[in-house]
Amino acid sequence: MGGLLFLCCPLFAPVALADWHVVWSDEFDYVGPPDATKWNIENWPPRRVNNELQSYTDDPENVWVENGRLVIEAQVDPDDDSLFTSARINSRGMGASTYGRFEARIRFPDARGTWSAFWLMPSDPSLYGWNQDEGWYWPNCGEIDIVEQVGFEPEIVHASVHSKAAYFKNGNQRTDQIEIADAADVYHRYAVEWLEDSMEFFVDDESFFRVENNGEGWEWWPFDQEFYVILNLAVGGSWGGREGIDLDALPQRMLVDYVRISEYSESDDLDPEVERDYSVDVLRESR
């Protein structure tokens, strides 16, 4: 579906766009598998996390680049033990930052049972120790969910942050949501601006969620270390499968136009080519 994206006035004023300069990106301006110098493709069995039902594979039928976009496709696969296959890729060891603006332009699927995410995890999850309750370093290590969307409510997108002191099992998860009526029909830009003492989350530069460092230690704010990008499309799971799976609606695709990591600079001598990175997409015709 084609169309123009018109921006709303933000609830909070973002850092001036010209002050962000791109330090890592994938514009997906090539054809074939995701660039191996930028992405790891994960191979996982079903139910490894969140009771998700799919196998994550590196099969070119589940993840590829074409027409200037990354495609992650969830499929029904009767030959796979899990019945479902999809993909999950990450930039660990290749694209990461401590603080910055992380942004992607995404079109989400629209089918009951899908669960899409653009999110961040720390390069060294062990920094704040093992969590005995969870049997891993999470959530001590922190997690930043820039955007999640589940197929049983495709017009709602969510942002969240997780830490030892504040996550869903404690009943105090820091999260919010915003309605984007055409999130499954056209591309929108999803971003977090992560500074030393705060994070602010945006859709098309409209701010809808803000979290601040309360100064009460790493249990609340482990976000002082390097984080990398993850993109994935799950099937089922503790959240995505809450209302079942529409088998007839599969396959479904999560489409990503670009991913960018930017760092803040107070310099007046920014490269004008970099500055255009954030102006060219403001009223960009959707594919």
Task: Give a short summary of the structure.
One of its GO terms (biological process) is carbohydrate metabolic process. With 287 residues, the chain is mostly beta strands.
Layout: helices, strands, pairs:
Layout (H helix, E strand, L loop, with lengths): L19 E7 L13 E2 L13 E2 L6 E4 L2 E8 L7 E3 L1 E3 L5 E2 L2 E8 L6 E9 L20 E8 L5 E7 L11 E6 L8 E8 L2 E6 L2 E7 L14 E9 L16 E13 L7 H5 L11
Parallel strand pairs: 3-6
Antiparallel strand pairs: 1-18, 2-7, 4-5, 5-6, 5-18, 7-17, 8-17, 9-14, 9-18, 10-11, 10-17, 11-12, 12-13, 14-15, 15-16
Task: Note down, in words, how this protein is organized.
This protein is mostly beta strands and 287 residues long. The protein has a single domain, classed as Jelly Rolls. 2% of the residues lie in helices and 39% in strands. It is globular and about 50 Å long.
Runs in which pLDDT lies below 50 for 5 or more consecutive residues are 1-13, 270-287
Number of domains: 1
Largest sheet: 10 strands, mixed
Judging by the overall fold, what is the CATH architecture? Sandwich
EC number: 3.2.1.73
Keywords: Glycosidase, Hydrolase, Signal
InterPro entries: Beta-glucanase-like (IPR000757), ConA-like_dom_sf (IPR013320), Glycosyl_Hydrlase_16 (IPR050546)
Family: Belongs to the glycosyl hydrolase 16 family.
